[in-house]
Amino acid sequence: SSGINAEYGGNLAVHLFRPATAMKLLSTCFTLLLLLSHLPSSLAYRDFSTHTPYEYSRGDITTVRWSKKLVPTRMYLLARHGSRHLGAKHVNLMVKFVDRVQQEESAVQKLPWLKEWTRPDYESDSHLVPQGMLEHYHLARRYKQRFPALFPAYYPTRYHIRSTHILRTSQSAASFMFGLFESMGPLDQVSTRTNLSTEGFQPVGLEIESADKDSLLRFMDNCPAYTNSHVTKNSKSEAIKLQKSQLYKKLVLDPISERAGFSMTVEDAEGLYDLCNFEHVSPTESNNSSFCDLIPRSAYALLDYERDLSRYYKSSYPNKLGYELSCVVLQDVLKQFEGGETATALRFAHSETLVPLITLLGISKDQDIAYTWDRKEFWNRTTKMSEIDPFATNLGFVVFKNSTSQDEIIKIFLNEREVKISACVSEEGCTRDELLNIVRSTQGQCDRSAMCSETNNTGSEDCTVTSELTSRMISEEMVEAAVAAKLEDDNKVLLDLNLFIIMAGLSGLCIVLIGFVAMNCKKIINDDNSEPGYQKMPFLDS
């Protein structure tokens, strides 16, 4: 800097703020701002089907409002477990892809961070990650804030708490309970012998049914008619068909191969998608890798859609027996709301529990009961698993009493947003009879024994119709048009946070520069008006 200062006669500041130099700097600033404003958005695509972190999709129950005449009196909350390790099938794909990418010299050159990155030991146990525990902890805090009267101090008869036998659900229940009763329990003594502080810990009772007897939260298990049905057995057929298509190659494999620097297989793409998913589910355990950068936004959309297909055919509208079995949960809801007992009921289960019940209630029902590549319907499809079934999905049923008429209604909340269902007439919510009619509309009026009987052929019909619908709608031209249109819309209205920060910074710099020029330029001209080309500038006086 001393050399540059010497070049300008020891008065670098004066040179920088001469009008000609200042105007060049200002011109450069505004040119950069103009260019940045036209760059395409790189806003992250955060939909990972049923493996989407809850924070990406949730509402906020603390902001939900209702009439002042309505007083909440009872609650039943059914929640899926929180974010977890992705499981053996996905981990195997992840490990195979990492092995391959680290052996490909072209990939190492394109991904310089790989040289410094340490591959973690990917856990395949499907247990909760810290983020999954926090999802339930904060969910409990928000529900308690909105419904304080329904979450009193713990006493066994005030709560009915139940989870499945699978550890991640009981761990989610424990995380939720900690959020409800943090520092409220009786165990608040410090043990000098063990140097352990319990800090008001509250132990709670948790009911867990054995695997072979849980017909409530694992209603799909031990049900031969469901397990052996054609739709259940072939629930992945549409996803596999999509993976083998030229469309998948063109929109997923080819663009990812170009970014990675080597030819990708379907298995590679699936492993990469899982690695990216894991970066969002547990960024600390992934050692802050950057595999997501290899997947273009349009490829994300197709991979998310492909994962949706399997859950859609297994648990949603195409599988009538699969979702009608969830009537037992709705029965349990109504049972808990009977009589004078006002205990809060809390249930912790799985995607296989929540999606069928959401379907039975008629929430998020696509018009044609089939996915489509129409531009608006594909991107805005209502049966979108990342929105209706992320990790920690929760379905809340709350009884409200009208303080004027004394009538009771039941409001339904999905992921902390109130939802309306067509089976209920009133805009304010559902009556008990309207929900009971949903139960009665199922086979045998919710006779699980009859539905699960080996002689029941409700789920054995061929799903050729839905398969043909999906095949017909997935045309390459329509997908390309839908993707191109969506990206065009995104580029018009979305700004990446990093670009926003850069633009804001440059804008601030330009404003400061203009002010500094305005204060100093007139003085510079007066002091140095002997140089040719400078004129007094009266407009700076204003």
The fraction of residues assigned to DSSP E strands is 5-15%
Shape: globular
Oligomer designation:
single chain
Task: Please describe the biggest sheet, giving its number of strands, its sense, and whether it closes into a barrel.
Answer: 7 strands, mixed
pLDDT < 50 runs, ≥5 residues: 36-43, 462-476, 528-542
Kindly report how far apart the N and C termini lie: 34 Å
Set out the fold topology.
Elements: H1 2-7, H2 12-16, H3 19-37, E1 70-80, H4 88-103, H5 105-110, H6 130-146, E2 159-163, H7 167-181, E3 190-191, E4 196-197, E5 207-208, H8 224-227, H9 230-233, H10 237-243, H11 246-260, H12 266-281, H13 297-315, H14 320-324, H15 327-336, E6 344-349, H16 351-360, H17 375-379, H18 385-388, E7 394-402, E8 408-414, E9 417-419, H19 432-440, H20 448-452, H21 464-473, H22 476-493, H23 497-527
Parallel strand pairs: 1-6, 2-5, 2-6
Antiparallel strand pairs: 1-7, 3-4, 7-8, 8-9
Helix pairs in contact: 3-23, 4-12, 6-7, 10-13, 11-13, 15-19
Characterization of this structure:
By secondary structure, the protein is an alpha/beta fold. 47% of the residues lie in helices and 9% in strands. It has 23 helices and 9 strands. The chain has helices spanning 2-7, 12-16, 19-37, 88-103, 105-110, 130-146, 167-181, 224-227, 230-233, 237-243, 246-260, 266-281, 297-315, 320-324, 327-336, 351-360, 375-379, 385-388, 432-440, 448-452, 464-473, 476-493, 497-527; strands spanning 70-80, 159-163, 190-191, 196-197, 207-208, 344-349, 394-402, 408-414, 417-419. The strands form 2 sheets. A 7-stranded mixed beta sheet has the order 5-2-6-1-7-8-9. It has a two-stranded antiparallel ribbon with strand order 3-4. The longest helix is centred in the last third of the chain and has 31 residues, at 497-527. The radius of gyration is 30 Å and the shape is globular.
